[in-house]
Amino acid sequence: DKEHSSHLQPVTQILLDTSAIIDGRIADISQTGFVSGALLVPRFVLNELQHIADSADTMRRNRGRRGLEMLNRLQKDTTVPIEITDADVEDVAEVDGKLVKMA
Questions:
Q1: Which of 22, 50, 58, 89 pairs as cysteine with 67 (C-beta 3.0–4.6 A)?
Q2: Which fold has domain 11-102?
Q3: Is 42 helix (H, G, I), strand (E, B) or coil?
């Protein structure tokens, strides 16, 4: 109905964090067509994934590799565009804090 649809703003970008990528369900959800807009992955999240994948701890390393595989799957799937951005929050050191500021 027109009254309700006029209040809805389309989502243009969805900011992904390390855990959402490792979890993998975003890849499944994006294939359904339910997600509108582009998936946005900051380079610092990609770097954190790589750091986890290079970990000496086997469980952490496997989680990191799974995250990199999920990211690769998302990039190959053309249903939802994915963008790696170099945008950064210089005055915040932690990845989670950077994501909160970016959002």
A1: 22
A2: Rossmann fold (3.40.50)
A3: strand
